[in-house]
Design brief:
By secondary structure, this protein is mostly helical. It is built from 17 helices and no strands. The longest helix has about 35 residues.
């Protein structure tokens, strides 16, 4: 039995959590979403990698100073107080379950390689996606350590097809497939910005090691190491494998592919290669769902323990897991999958990931600024660190986050802002309820 707060996650499990949460559905379906931009999206990958690394460095610094459960929520509450802390927990929690819905969609898409009837059958795809969500929920209810072990194994398995595509796949590139630099119909800057916003989705999760801090061995050291290692490993794999896929499949075909990596592997290595990559991708999506499910129980639990979320979110099972938060969040994921049931797979995936990315960017922006605020409030915490260097990185991460939010598009920003503002009446209700029960 695992008790709450028991130190069960080491540096390798944490690195697997960071890498596994980023390398989920994002990389495996993104080539189809990016095909409408052209090869300018490869430059977006590079720029996004640098921006993600800047954000990761801020999270690494804050995790060293304050190794607390909750990640972005914990840091924002320290910097801005309870109200903004609640908003970040609320928004980040939404980002977690909306993102998990996108991963579930990708899971069904790649499983269609083995079960063709899933392709075009919206109801059956929904049942498969929702079923996978509830299986990972059950795993996380049983044990945090068991969820960590699942994450480690699935991360190792998912890297195999990506490494295959990103290395040997480069030998199969057809130069004419990379000749279409910008086919979006918009300016290069507009296309670059739009593609960069999409690619950022593949890095959402870089903060994963900071969230379950209460269950981490030597958190002040291991969280920072896992965060930086995870981002660097992931960025290299993303850039090389995306280059290979775009170089093998013409953009006109890639834009309509529901399993672009499997299609690329089929062209490179024949039917067996396609099946191998598709199997690896199914494992990858399942592992990512498992990792995100772990986080979606931890964040509301941390906020509930501070009195900012309803008290029932803080209750844990005999296994030390936040059962109510896990179950409620999975119910919300199931409802979102049901609401987007009639959309085409790629269109459904693209909209959901943009909304999830924006919901993550808002806590990212507040968190990187939080480092500057915490420094201004209590400089003693930063004694022995490179203050100037840390501040410059935080400012760069802030500028990048703001730019990425602006590039999300009017519709996504509109819905994202509505989600963010919905936290205000919820907070008012929480305060009213808490005062009545005192």
């Amino acid at each position: 039995m695992i008790k709450p707060g028991q130190k069960t996650l080491g540096v390798w499990m944490l690195t697997a959590l960071v890498t596994g949460n980023m390398i989920g559905s994002g990389i495996f379906l993104l080539p189809a979403s990016l095909a409408s931009y052209g090869t300018i999206s490869l430059y977006s990958w590079i720029f996004t990698s640098l921006g993600a690394l800047a954000i990761a460095l801020v999270f690494a610094r804050l995790s060293t100073l304050m190794p607390r459960t909750g990640g972005p929520y914990a840091y924002c509450r320290e910097a801005y107080g309870n109200f903004v802390g609640f908003q970040m927990a609320y928004n980040y929690w939404i980002a977690l379950w909306v993102g998990n819905a996108a991963i579930a969609v990708a899971f069904a898409g790649y499983l269609s390689v083995f079960i063709p009837v899933l392709n075009g059958n919206h109801l059956l795809s929904f049942l498969v996606s929702a079923g996978a969500v509830w299986v990972t929920t059950l795993i996380n209810i049983v044990s945090i350590r068991r969820a960590g072990m699942v994450q480690l194994v699935t991360t190792i398995l998912k890297l195999l097809p990506l490494l295959l595509i990103g290395s040997l796949g480069l030998l199969f590139i057809q130069p004419h497939n990379l000749a279409e630099f910008n086919i979006s119909g918009h300016s290069n800057f507009s296309a670059f910005t739009g593609a960069a916003t999409l690619t950022l989705w593949a890095f959402v999760g870089l903060e994963s090691a900071t969230v379950p801090a209460g269950n981490v061995k030597d958190p002040q050291r291991n969280i920072a190491r896992a965060t930086i290692f995870g981002v660097l490993i992931t960025a290299l794999i993303y850039i090389l494998s995306s280059l290979a896929v775009m170089g093998v499949i013409p953009s006109s075909q890639l834009a309509h592919s529901t399993a672009p990596y499997a299609d690329a592997a089929r062209l490179m290595f024949g039917p067996i290669g396609g099946l191998f990559v598709a199997a690896g991708t199914v494992v990858s999506c399942f592992g990512a769902m498992n990792g995100w499910t772990l986080l979606q129980g931890q964040v509301p639990m941390a906020a509930a323990r501070d009195g900012l979320f309803p008290r029932f979110f803080s209750k844990t099972s005999r296994f030390g897991t936040p059962v109510f938060g896990l179950v409620l969040t999975s119910v919300l994921i199931t409802l979102l999958l049901l609401l987007t049931l009639n959309e085409g797979l790629v269109k459904q995936f693209t909209f959901i990931i943009l909304l999830a990315t924006l919901s993550s960017l808002i806590p990212y922006l507040f968190t990187v600024v939080a480092q500057l605020v915490i420094y201004a409030k209590d400089r003693e915490q930063f004694r022995g660190t490179t203050i100037l260097g840390s501040s410059i990185i935080a400012i760069l991460a802030m500028v990048y986050s703001f730019w990425a939010i602006a590039g999300s598009g009017e519709e996504v920003v509109f819905y994202g802002v509505l989600l963010f503002f919905s936290s205000v009446p919820v907070y008012a209700w929480m305060k009213f309820h808490s005062n009545r029960t005192v």
